[in-house]
Design brief:
By secondary structure, the protein is mostly beta strands. It has one helix and 28 strands. The strands form six sheets. Strands 6, 7, 8, 9, 10, 11, 12 and 13 form an eight-stranded antiparallel sheet that branches. It has a four-stranded antiparallel sheet with strand order 1-28-27-26. A four-stranded antiparallel sheet has the order 2-3-4-5, with no helix packed on it. Strand 3 and strand 4 form a beta hairpin. The longest helix has 12 residues. The radius of gyration is 18 Å and the shape is globular.
């Protein structure tokens, strides 16, 4: 996810309270919060779309993008959502969204050939402009990230044996395919997962990481020059099958990262579904107590050096030691999670589910509301 505008400051008292409450809470039934004091509070979206794309801006403004060409926006902390879907986009599958503020956002549609597209709005979704349409039948775009308001990248599955990277320098108004000379060869059967908008993430002005699966090993590739050259590292997350690998990444800075994944098939276990890096992705260690099941999304709690949330169809897990150990704190279904610099955390998933992390002192307003 985008690292735009993140500042270093002490984690808010409310967020500390939420993390502690989640840590101490017993798991709840599906869709319920762990306790009345803190947990996910569902917001009314009025749709059954599946939202794998999520871009909260702050405690009041957030965007979500999902199936059936659906894009929603809230400017009141989730009390209400406005359907701002692009006209004629009903056949598109939006899997990622990056938002700069309440008016400007970029969405990515996935699929083979021309199904992969990028659209941009500058008026809160009242109108949309298509800024990229894939014309190469071999390409399949999965996710995107922005370093700042101007510079961003989008990731395609391998073409001619190498991952394809799309670049923008004008906030998503125009895009170009980067040269592939600095990209390592992809493994046979390897690809990215368009599961949460987190298979391509950035931290700072130039560092970016991409997550893979499906091949003999689940790898993380890193670039320190906005996608021109890359290095690849194997992770301990199991792969070796098209449904296995790393599905989501989160870096709180250019050094400390968390990877989550597993096997997305419902009838399959997902051992070693988490890994941690403390050297910018050059090496990865398995979580001592990993998430207990497949997880597709992960996010650091704002301004915390040790706390993060991971989500998947069977629940939410919390770590308070930088990803080394995880504990399930909610059993509701979510595909992706993200937090904002002002201390609000959001999650989204199937059947129109979008939620905010709420604490007792702020009720359903959630953090930062």
């Amino acid at each position: 996810m985008t690292s735009m505008g993140k500042t270093r400051r002490t984690m808010s008292v409310g967020l500390i309270g939420a993390a502690l409450a989640l840590t101490l809470a017993a798991p709840a039934r599906a869709g319920e919060t762990p306790t009345a004091a803190a947990g996910w509070q569902l917001t009314p979206t009025g749709t059954d779309a599946r939202f794998r794309g999520l871009a909260p801006v702050d405690g009041r403004t957030a965007w979500a993008a999902g199936s059936k060409g659906t894009v929603l926006r809230t400017t009141d902390g989730g009390r209400s959502w406005r359907n701002v879907s692009p006209a004629g986009a009903g056949d598109l599958e939006f899997r990622d969204v990056e938002a700069f503020d309440a008016r400007r956002a970029v969405v990515l549609a996935i699929g083979e050939g021309e199904a992969s597209r990028v659209l941009r709005t500058e008026d809160g979704g009242a109108t949309w402009t298509e800024s990229f349409r894939n014309t190469d039948a071999r390409a399949f775009y999965d996710c995107m990230t922005f370093f700042d308001h101007r510079h961003g990248l989008a990731l395609s599955d391998p073409v001619d044996g190498k991952y394809r990277i799309l670049s923008t320098r004008d906030g998503g108004r125009s895009w170009e395919v980067l040269p592939s000379a600095g990209m390592p060869d992809a493994l046979p059967g390897e690809a990215g997962f368009a599961a949460s908008g987190q298979c391509l993430v950035s931290a700072g002005p130039r560092d970016v990481w991409l997550a893979t699966g499906g091949g003999a090993a689940a790898r993380v590739l890193h670039s320190a020059d906005r996608g021109l050259t890359w290095t690849a590292t194997e992770t301990p997350v199991p792969a070796g099958y098209p449904a296995r690998g790393v599905f989501g990444l989160a870096f709180r800075d250019r050094t400390h990262g968390i990877a989550v994944g597993g096997d997305y098939r419902k009838d399959q276990p997902s051992p070693r579904a988490g890994a941690v890096s403390t050297d910018g992705g050059r090496t990865w260690l398995p979580s001592a107590t990993p998430p207990p099941a497949y997880r597709s999304g992960v996010a650091w709690l704002p301004h915390s050096r040790t706390a993060a949330l991971a989500v998947g169809p069977t629940g939410t897990d919390l770590t308070t030691d930088g990803g080394r150990t995880w504990r399930t704190v909610d059993t509701g279904s979510y595909d992706t999670v993200d937090c904002t610099p002002d201390g609000s955390c959001w999650a989204s998933g199937e059947k129109g589910r979008i939620a905010r992390l709420a604490t007792e002192d702020r009720g359903t307003r959630g953090l930062g509301g």
